Write the C-alpha cells for this entry.
Amino acid sequence: TLEKEVAKETKEVEVLEHTLAQQRKHQNLAEYRLQLDPEQPCPLCGSLHHPYATEEPYFDTKEELLKEKKKSLQTKSDYLTSLRAKNKFQTKEIVDLNTTLKTLTEEKDRHLESLSKLANQLEWNYKDDLETLTANRLLLNRQIQQMEKAKQAFQAATILKDMETALKQWDLALTTYKSIHKERTALYNGPDINGRVNVLSSSITRSLTTISSLEEQLKELVKKLEAHLDSKAKKEEALHSIVLKEQMESIKALRSGILSEDRASKIRKRENELKELNTRLSEKENSLKKLVSELTPKDSPELSLEALTTLFNEAKANWDALSVQIGKITQSLEDDEKAKLRQRKVQEQINLLKKDLSLWKTMNDLIGDATGNKFSNFVQDLTLEQLIGHANRRLAEFSDRYLLDIPTANEAEKSDTLKIYDNYMGNVRRSVRTLSGGETFLVSLAMAFALSDIAAKNVRIESLFIDEGFGTLDPETLDQAITILEKMQNEGDKSVGVISHVSALKERITTQIKLEKGSLGYSTLKVVQ
C-alpha cells in the first residue's frame, strides 16, 4: 500500500542521510589525516595503522539519489496526506448521509401513520393501487362540491330571512323619523339646529367666564379698598397726634409748616455730614488719648524742647536713611528677580543646546576625527555588516554548514580575520583560516557574489569573471563549485566566465575561449563550442 511505500522510502532516506553525514564527517577530517605520521600512533584512537592517510578513501556520494528519494517521498507523502484528508471528508459525508437517511425514515413513518388514520376515517385502504385511490379521490371531490352547494343554498335562505327582517326594521325606522321630523319642524324650522346650539352654548360659556373673572376682580378690589381705608384711618390718627404734639390748630396748619423737599434734602445731607465729622473727631480724640497715655511714661521732665527737637530730627534722619536703604534693597530684589528670569531663559536655551550637544557628541564619538579615520572605519563597519549579510545569504545556497561572522572589537584590535560558525560541529566559532582549500574557495566565492550584489544596486553587472582558485579544490568541491556557477548562470541574468588551467573544467564548460601560444611572441584566441 501507499503507507507502506512511504514508510519504506522514509527509512531509505534516513539511511542515505546517515551515510551522507558519515561521508561528510570523513571529508571534514581530511586536514587532520594529512597530519598523521605513519610511525606515530593516532592521537584519537592510538592505532599505528592509518589506511586513510596513505590511501584516499573512496566514497560513493549519492546526493542525487538522495534528492530524488526525498522528492519522491515528499510527493507520496503529500498524496497520502491528501488521501487521508479526502477519506476523513468522505467519512464525515457518510455520517451526515446516514443521519439524513434516519431523519427521512422517521418522517416517512410519521406520514404513513397519518395516512393510515385518514384512510380509516374515509374507510379507504391506503394500500390499494393508484387508480383506485385516484377514483376514490374524484368521488370524494364530487361529494364535497355537492355539500358546498347545499351549504351555499342554506346560507342563501338565511340571508333572505335576515334581509326581510332588516326591511321591516327600515320601514319602522322611517315612520319614526318622519313623525319626529314633523315635531322638530314645528318647534324649530331653522337650517341647522346643532350649529345654532353650539354657537349659543359657546356664547353662554364665554359670558359665564367673564362674569366669574369680574367677580374675582371685584373681590380683590374690595379687599384693597378695605386695606386702604384702614391705612387712612391709622395715618389720620398719627397726624392728629402730631398736631396735638406741635400745638397746632389743624392738619392744614401742619401742612403749611412742612418744609419743601429740596430744603429737607439739604438739611438731611448736612446732618449726615455733621455726624461723619463728629465720628472722625471722636476717633482722633481717642487716638490722641491713646498716644498721650503711651508717651506719658516716656516723658522725661529733664529734657527741654530743644533737646526733644534734636532727638526728633535725628530720629527723622535715621528714618529717612532707613527708607532710602529699604528702597535700595527693594530695587536689588527686583533686579534679582529680573536676573533670575533671565537666568531661567538662558538655562532653557542651555538645555536645548545640551540636547543638540548630545547628538553631535555621539556623532563625534562615532565618526569625529580630524583625519577622517573614524568616519572611514564607521562606514567600513556598516559596509562590512551589509557584505556579511549578503555573503551568508549566498553561502546558504552553497552549503548549510557555515555562517560568517564579524570579529569582535578585541579580535579586531589583534588584526584577526573573519569568523565562521560551523553548524556541523556544534555551532563552534572559529577563524576562516582553519578552513580547508575547498571551503575557503566557497567562502571567497560567496563574498565575491556579495560584493557583486552590493555593487549591482547602483550599476547593472551583467558579467562575472573568476580568475583561478580552482586548483586547490578536491573533486567533490570542484564539482559543487561548478554546479553553483552553472545554476547562477542559468537562473540569473549574469554571464559567468572562468579563467583556469584545471583540465577537469573542460568537461563541464560548454563554451570555451582557448588561448594558444604561437611563434614570434604572438598568441591566438579560439572559441570552442
